[in-house]
Inverse folding.
C-alpha cells in the first residue's frame, strides 16, 4: 500500500525517485514533500589545519570546482556525473534497479 503521494500511473511512479536536487553537486530525492534526501558532501584534506579552515563541498558554487557535469543521464533510470576538484576527479553515479524503478543505488569513485 502506497501513501497518497505515491499513487498514480506507472509512468508517474517510475519518476518518483531521481536527481531532483538543484544547486548541489550530486543529490537524489523522491517527489514527496518533506521527504528524506540523499547527497554527496566532501572536502580535500591535505593537513589537519585544513579541516578547521575550509568548507565542505556540497552546494554547486562555480568557484569551488574546476568542472562538474552530468556526462550521461536519461532523465529517469540512470546518471553519471563527473566532478573535477583540485587534484582529483570524482565520478558519482546512480541507477534504478527494479520494475517500478523505486529502488536505486548510488556509487562514488
Amino acid at each position: 500500500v502506497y501513501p497518497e503521494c505515491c499513487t498514480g500511473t506507472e509512468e508517474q511512479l517510475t519518476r518518483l525517485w531521481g536527481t531532483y536536487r538543484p544547486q548541489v553537486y550530486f543529490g537524489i530525492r523522491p517527489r514527496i514533500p518533506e521527504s528524506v534526501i540523499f547527497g554527496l558532501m566532501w572536502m580535500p584534506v591535505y593537513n589537519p589545519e585544513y579541516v578547521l579552515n575550509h568548507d565542505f563541498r556540497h552546494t554547486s558554487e562555480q568557484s569551488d570546482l574546476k568542472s562538474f557535469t552530468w556526462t550521461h543521464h536519461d532523465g529517469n533510470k540512470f546518471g553519471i556525473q563527473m566532478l573535477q576538484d583540485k587534484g582529483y576527479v570524482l565520478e558519482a553515479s546512480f541507477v534504478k534497479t527494479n520494475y517500478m524503478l523505486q529502488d536505486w543505488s548510488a556509487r562514488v569513485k
Notes: DSSP finds two helices and seven strands in the chain.
